Amino acid sequence: MSDVSGKWDCVTKSPLGELKTVLTVVVDGNTFTGSNSGAQGSMDITDGKVDGNTLTWTMDMKVPMPMVLECNATIDGETLTGGVKAGAFGTSPMSGTRAA
Fold this sequence. Notes:
The chain is mainly β. It is 0% helix and 73% strand. An eight-stranded antiparallel beta barrel has the order 1-2-3-4-5-6-7-8.
């Protein structure tokens, strides 16, 4: 199992443009907590699950409109790839690298 814990510098290509965030992952067995912070503010991770090097979680977005985001990411060494599903807006691709 790879080490998925830590901070990840991420870019999500959303309908609002590229959103840069820092994803913080704190693993505890098969679950994790943390946050995703950027220019729009910070969102806590809820229902975080770890399956090998794959993460799934949700976040309760407030800005620019309230909605639950469904997220997934696969960690491969120092890189992260995944997506953020924002209801009717579909899934936006997300990529990132481990923060220094």
